[in-house]
């Protein structure tokens, strides 16, 4: 089983990579993960590295049955990357009550590669990114994905943290740190992962 952990912001500097890593580390140290006989692999997928152009395919993705039918090499590669994954954790900031355009663009490139797969929506912001969490969940339902009931909403506790995140400064999220600002939020991550793991077992593999 492979879970793609999608890093949803692409600007430089940014906070998203360290927040995605915090989520991965929290899952790996959880009892639910440790007790699994077959542990899913968690793979970070950084949209900044993919650097996809604005959607430039000539076809509607839902009508594409094989990745070789896409026009462009970047779409064929992106399709193969998403096909490899059995489920996803979308990690994204809230931008003006929505989620970043780069993430919507990366999603829109494909359809059948996402369809039927379970996913967790993990958002962050001044109020946990609740507005963009709702919006992304609507989009995943439109893709016929299976978003978990459990959401991950991570709030910056104060102005100082908000400013640090915006500047891409280390938020000291290391799971071993008792000073971690999101120590109490780890349970959200654990609960969402437990639900994702259950959905993964119930979902027939399309690979
Ligand atoms: C274009 C833009 C719009 C933003 N809009 C919001 C917002 O609606 N709500 C919020 O809580 N934070 C907002 N922020 C602040 C972000 O939560 C914060 O800068 C965070 O670090 C962004 O994630 P990133 O560093 O991975 O890009 C916004 C930031 C940017 C760059």
Automatic annotation (TrEMBL):
One Pfam family of this chain: FMN_red
PANTHER family: CHROMATE REDUCTASE (PTHR30543), NAD(P)H-DEPENDENT FMN REDUCTASE LOT6 (PTHR30543:SF21)
Ranges in a coiled coil: none
Protein name from the UniProt record: LANO_0G06172g1_1
Organism, scientific name: Lachancea nothofagi CBS 11611
GO molecular function: FMN binding; oxidoreductase activity
NADPH-dependent FMN reductase-like domain location: 1-150
Signal peptide annotation: none
CC annotations in GO: cytosol
């Amino acid at each position: 089983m492979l879970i793609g952990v999608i890093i949803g912001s692409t600007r430089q500097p940014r906070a998203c990579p360290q927040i995605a890593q915090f989520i991965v580390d929290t899952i790996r140290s959880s009892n639910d993960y440790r007790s699994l006989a077959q542990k899913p692999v968690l793979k970070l997928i950084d949209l900044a590295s993919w650097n996809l152009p604005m959607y430039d395919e000539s076809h509607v993705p839902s009508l594409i049955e094989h990745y070789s039918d896409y026009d462009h090499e970047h779409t064929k590669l992106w399709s193969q990357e998403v096909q490899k994954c059995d489920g996803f954790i979308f990690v994204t900031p809230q931008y003006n009550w929505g989620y970043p355009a780069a993430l919507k663009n990366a999603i829109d490139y494909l359809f059948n590669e996402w369809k039927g797969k379970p996913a967790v929506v993990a958002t962050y912001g001044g109020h946990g990114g609740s507005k963009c969490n709702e919006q992304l969940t609507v989009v995943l339902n439109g893709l016929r994905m299976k978003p978990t009931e459990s959401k991950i909403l991570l709030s910056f506790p104060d102005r100082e943290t908000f400013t640090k995140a915006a500047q891409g400064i280390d938020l000291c999220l290391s799971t071993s740190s008792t000073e971690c600002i999101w120590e109490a939020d780890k349970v959200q991550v654990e609960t969402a992962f437990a639900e994702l793991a259950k959905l993964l077992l119930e979902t027939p593999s399309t690979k």
